[in-house]
Structures are given as C-alpha cells and as structure tokens.
C-alpha cells in the first residue's frame, strides 16, 4: 500500500494545512483552503481517539453552577502540532463552559466540532470611520478601548456541521459556548498566536448589556465592544493528545 494511503486522516489534515497556509496570498490559496475544509469535515472524535466525557462532566450541580467551577479548568487544550505557518489542537469544553469573545489578529482559522454542541457567535471589526454614533457609556470598571463591530451570526454547530471558518477580516471575533453538555472541537489557526509579532489574543464584551452568547436581536447588526482583561472564571488547562502522531 502506498505510504500516503497509510497516513492517518489527521496527518493528511496537517499536511494540507501546511500546504494551504504556506502561501496564504498565493493564487492557489482558495483551492487549497477548500481542500483543507473538505478533509477537516471528515474528522470525527474516534479518529483522534477521543470520546465524549462522562455524565460527571455534563451533570449540573444541585443549587446551580457547573460541576467543575473552581476545581478544574473550564477549558482544556490538547496540542497536536505547530509550525511557523499554523497550529493545530483540540479544545475540550466542560458543560456550561464558555470561551469568551476574543479576536485572532491577522489570522485564518478553522473549527470542527468533534462531539457535543457549540453555540458560536461571530463578529467583524469595522473601520473607525464606519462608526455612525458615539458608543454607549461603559459599565463601571470598564477602562479598555471601544471598537465598532458587525455582529454577523450566532449558530449552533455539531459534529454533523461543516467547519466554522474565520479569516483576518471575516468572523475574526467569536465567542464559543458549550450547549447542553461537554463539547470538543479541532482547531486550526494560521499563523499561530505570537505576541512578539502582533498576534496576541484580546478579549471583549458587548457594551449593550447583553452577552455575545445571549439571544440577540435580528442579525447582522452593528454593536459596540469594549476590550477587557481575561475573565477571572476562564482559564485553559492542558491535556495530553491521545490520537495518531502527526509528523511534519
């Protein structure tokens, strides 16, 4: 059997990601991105030797609040591979966990749900000149800069859904909530976060009182955001990746 046919699906995804993001401004980028999207759409939890977490990870605590609060990280990350052009890994969200609204400066991204259900709210930043009115006054304790954004969509994603895509200019800000139990997704970012090269993660919240994961009025619509520090109740732990080895 030819060597390429023996490669695991996640190995093929990694190879295609390397080809795709090696030349993101090249003439073949669109075709390569489409091929990567097709491969990513095939990935299932079992391909990475993952299984949904048990009832203890999804059960609600009597009296309210998630069972992991203050005990274990609400979100964990399994590192698979990283090059100068992209990184790939798996995020695991416990029941009720939320990755707060954040950005991906100058980056492309792809997200494929492996198990569970995610609610993903996506936004675009708007040019400063696009702001037609002054922002509402920030709440007490908010001191970060404000920016205008287009709240584009808020959708549920399951393993049957196609990958969620983001680009440097479209759906670049998003919030991810686990719905009705734990969830996991395969994540590709290109290029990886790198604060020394201006690719640091920034967190935001809506200035209108509602949260990005809450039921919004009709979309798309323009909103004001305020930059905030990382929330005290959000942090990300690490777990070993149990799936097939990836070599690049």
Describe the largest sheet: 10 strands, mixed
Order of helices and strands: HHHHEEEEEEEEEE
- Uncertain segments are 1-5, 55-63
CATH architecture designation of the domain at 73-129 and 144-209 and 216-238: Sandwich
Structural class assignment: alpha+beta
Shape descriptor reads: globular
Write out the CATH superfamily name of the domain at 73-129 and 144-209 and 216-238.
Jelly Rolls
Task: Give an overview of the whole structure.
This protein is an alpha+beta fold and 248 residues long. The protein has a domain at 73-129 and 144-209 and 216-238: Jelly Rolls (Sandwich). The protein has four helices and ten strands. The protein has helices spanning 3-6, 9-22, 29-42, 55-58; strands at 75-82, 87-93, 98-102, 108-125, 146-157, 164-166, 173-190, 203-206, 221-228, 236-238. Strands 1, 2, 3, 4, 5, 6, 7, 8, 9 and 10 form a ten-stranded mixed sheet that branches. It comes from Smithornis capensis. One of its GO terms (molecular function) is oxidoreductase activity, acting on single donors with incorporation of molecular oxygen, incorporation of two atoms of oxygen.
């Amino acid at each position: 059997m030819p060597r390429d046919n023996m490669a695991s699906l996640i190995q093929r995804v990694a190879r295609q990601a390397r080809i795709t993001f090696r030349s993101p401004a090249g003439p073949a980028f669109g075709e390569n991105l489409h091929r990567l999207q097709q491969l990513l759409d095939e990935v299932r939890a079992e391909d990475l030797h993952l299984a949904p977490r048990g009832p203890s990870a999804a059960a609600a605590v009597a009296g309210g609040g998630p069972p992991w609060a203050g005990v274990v990280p609400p979100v964990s990350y399994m590192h698979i591979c990283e090059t100068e052009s992209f990184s790939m890994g798996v995020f695991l969200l416990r029941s009720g966990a939320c990755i707060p609204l954040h950005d991906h400066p100058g980056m492309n991204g792809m997200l494929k749900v492996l198990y569970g259900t995610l609610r993903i709210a996506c936004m675009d930043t708007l040019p400063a000149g696009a702001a037609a009115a002054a922002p509402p006054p920030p709440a007490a304790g908010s001191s970060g800069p404000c920016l205008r954004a287009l709240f584009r969509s808020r959708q549920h994603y399951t393993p049957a859904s196609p990958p969620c895509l983001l680009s440097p200019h479209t759906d670049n800000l998003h919030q991810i909530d686990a719905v009705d139990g734990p969830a996991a997704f395969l994540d590709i970012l290109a290029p990886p976060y790198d604060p020394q090269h201006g690719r640091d993660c920034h967190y935001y919240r809506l200035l209108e009182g509602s949260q990005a994961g809450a039921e919004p009025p009709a979309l798309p619509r323009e909103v004001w955001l305020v930059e905030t520090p990382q929330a005290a109740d959000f942090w990300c732990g690490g777990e070993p990746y149990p799936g097939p080895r990836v070599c690049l």
